[in-house]
Amino acid sequence: MNIKKSFALMAMCGFAFCASAQKLTSPDGNLVMNFSLNEQGAPVYDLTFKEKTVIKPSTLGLELKREDPEKKTDFEWTEMKDKAGVDKRANLMTGFKIKDTRTSTFDETWRPVWGEESEIRNHYNELEVTLDQPMNNRYIVIRFRLFNDGLGFRYEFPQQQNLNYFVIKEEHSQFAMSGDHTAFWIPGDYDTQEYDYTTSRLSEIRSKMKEAVTPNSSQYVFSPTGVQTALMMKTDDGLYINLHEAALVDYSCMSLNLDDKNMVFESWLTPDAKGDKGYMQTPCNSPWRTVIVSDDARDILASRITLNLNEPCKIADPSWIHPVKYVGVWWDMITGRGTWAYTDDVYSVKLGETDYMQTKPNGKHSANTENVKRYIDFAAKHGFDAVLVEGWNQGWEDWFGKSKDYVFDFVTPYPDFDVQELHRYAAGKGIEMMMHHETSSSVRNYERHMDKAYQFMVDNGYSSVKSGYVGDIIPRGEHHYGQWMVNHYLYAVTKAADYKIMVNAHEAVRPTGLCRTYPNLIGNESARGTEYESFGGSNVNHTTILPFTRLVGGPMDYTPGIFETDCSKMNPTNTSRVRSTLVRQLALYVTMYSPLQMAADVPENYERFMDAFQFIKDVPVDWQRTEYLEAEPGEYVTIARKDKHSNDWYVGCSAGYNGHESKLTLDFLDPDKKYEATIYADAKGTAWDNNPQAYTITKKKVTAKTKLNLKAGIGGGYAISIKEIKD
After folding, report:
1. pLDDT mean over 303-329
2. Residue 696: what are its φ and ψ, rounded to 5°?
3. What pLDDT, in 10s, does the model give residues 389-425?
4. Where is the Glycosyl-hydrolase 97 catalytic domain positioned along the sequence (predicted)?
5. pTM for the structure as a whole
6. Mean pLDDT taken over the chain
7. N or C: which end of the chain has fewer CB within 10 A?
8. What SS3 state is found at 490?
């Protein structure tokens, strides 16, 4: 690792001098941030990119929960002495004076355990502003980091006599937009991100909100103009702006609420069961608030701000953490052909009391030993790493919608699932097993069983777990994205690390780059994934937006690779269609980055298209270098990636409602090497709703000078493997 630091310290100064604007410039000079205090002593910042306004002057600060003046507060039950000060103590927004400022430069190159490239540069200029609040005799720090591709800032609360324990009522970080931008958004919700994206002007969010909110197993929409991050926008003068957060630890998840008269976004934290938005103890800090900006959409995809604002890896020896390509007993149940439940005879399960040996199997239970062995055989034959099995454990007959505490124990299999035999069988074929822990959002129950469940995994050869949080949270009244749950998700990851287990969390809070610090967090869902293609379908351009939104925070277990796009072929009662061509399903292995990639369809569907399946077999899940060739949110994304362990490259293109024509130059290839390209393309006239399984496969010799003209159909794409020709 190479690190360079330089510091310039400004000594203590009077208010008159320090109240003037502080200017921070990015290393390349394109971004400029100004900071000052307004007449009320409120912190104000603005941001420009190449002299274009990104963020107009916007205020910062927090509103604390008002103390109860009648409350008995100490051990002797003494009444509060300073009742008159409860209102002003809740104010952490105004009345500040600049105590001192400090600037510094930081430049390092670090190596992720896995990632989109083998090295990441972390280069920024920093402004640290210490703000004194005389009326409360306390101070805070606001830290700004300006990168070439955007801004990060956070609040820091040093330990001090008059700011020790406090409760956040609301954070008031503003992001004032310069106009009525085009936005790619999903409704602000405390419990789910599993919505299709709406593309509209900011001024249209209010009128389009009702249509944008679709049913989910747990949801709480908080405002007619509230949206979630990462929020992607495009201005009329050609800027691409992305708002998100990084390093979400011991704090509530941030959404954004829009003042649609003035086009000002303000942070909106997820509350707990009491309505409070954060219980804090100093020293502590908020997550980073991020603004990524460029006049080239590809730079948004290439930004590593989210990762760079997280702490370095805290796992001393991460050598046991590795990317995984897997198949699984999953799509069978998602389409309704099979079931998670073992029997249809039981309507109420009490673990330890319900005797499944006395029940009649329903004949559709997919997680049975024989079927799982079929998947293990398929994985071994085609070079996959692991097999996921859902529905293996007792309790699925009444798992959902009952607000049930003791719903699963995570160690007791159904009678037709032989844990020991499958462990032996998989190990004999060099295949790992991937555990499934659906919690039904009974988090209290999961933590009760966690150590035992993780030890059970270790004992039976499971090195990774897919966890799920479907439904309303128990403890009742908590939300999926509140501080309490944010702490739980991290607890599960750190506890798993004690057992050398990798975690893929579904329905959890959307990622904020914590996979840098805890790389055993190898995947998340936290968005509308492939399963929704069986639940009525997702928007055709969904996978052209996700790389600009959800993936800004970290990789997604999107579960691509569905070859049979007509779900009625799996289940005659399921009339849903996968709104994608077969070839675009290949491309997603490149455009939807994850070190955890699933071939999500059933083996028999792959066996019908083995020539196309070859791309899924070949494509790596860990990368040395990534090049973003073309990008326009909502329209198309074209990405090239170099295998971490060879000189081979892979290219993927995902297109939306208008299809896409590419004119590519392969200048990212080594100019001294020759390659053979295998091009998987939509057949002429193919679209997601017109002969979606039609494709062509062509091979040709290529070099760094080769130019390719390729066309993706509506909801289509193309995929290319480019392998070095050895002399």
Report:
1. 98
2. -125, 150
3. 999 999 999 999 999 999 999 999 999 999 999 999 9
4. 330-527
5. 0.96
6. 95
7. C
8. helix
For residue 287, give the nearest of 338, 357, 341, 229 by alpha carbon: 229
The sign of the CA dihedral 479, 482, 486, 488 is: negative
The DSSP 8-state label assigned to residue 401 in this structure reads S
Dihedral sign (CA 435, 520, 616, 531) = positive
Q: How far apart are CA 383 and CA 618, in angstroms?
A: 9
* Residue that has been written with the tokens 């037709």 in this structure: 416
User: What six digits make up the tokens of 531?
Assistant: 């399963």
3-state secondary structure at position 239: coil
Residue 421 neighbours by CB distance under 10 Å = 12
Q: Are 670 and 647 in contact (CB under 8 A)?
A: yes
- Among 161, 146, 136, which Cα is nearest to 62's? 136
Distance CA(183)–CA(197), nearest Å, equals 9
Angle (nearest 5°) at CA 703 between 593 and 723? 50
Please name the residue that has the structure tokens 């510094």: 104
User: Is 156 among the catalytic positions?
Assistant: no
pLDDT tens, position by position, 12-47: 332 223 446 899 999 999 999 999 999 999 999 999
Q: How many angstroms separate the CA atoms of 282 and 139, rounded?
A: 12
Residue 671's Cβ-side half-sphere holds a number of Cα atoms within 13 Å equal to: 2
Task: Round to whole Å and give the CA distance between 196 and 200.
Answer: 13
Q: CA neighbours within 13 Å on the CB side: how many for 669?
A: 26
Q: In which residue are the tokens 């931008």 written?
A: 181
As given in the structure block, the two tokens for residue 385 are 């790493």
Interaxial angle between packed helices 419-428 and 369-381, expressed in degrees from 0 to 180 and rounded to the nearest 10: 10
Annotated catalytic residue: which of 531, 533, 564, 627?
531
pLDDT, tens digit, for every residue of 146-165? 999 999 999 999 999 999 99
Taking the C-alpha atoms of residue 106 and residue 143, their distance in angstroms, rounded to an integer, is 14
Q: How many residues in total does the chain contain?
A: 727
Range list of H helices, 52-159: 86-89
Residue 198 tokens, joined: 């709406």
- pLDDT digits over 305-317, tens only? 999 999 999 999 9
Q: What is the pLDDT of residues 690-720, one digit of tens each?
A: 999 999 999 999 999 999 999 999 999 999 9
Rounded (5°) CA angle 693-694-699: 120
Q: What pLDDT does residue 73 have?
A: 57
Complete DSSP assignment for 580-634:
S-HHHHHHHHHHS--SEEEE-S-HHHHTT-HHHHHHHHH--SSEEEEEEEEEETT
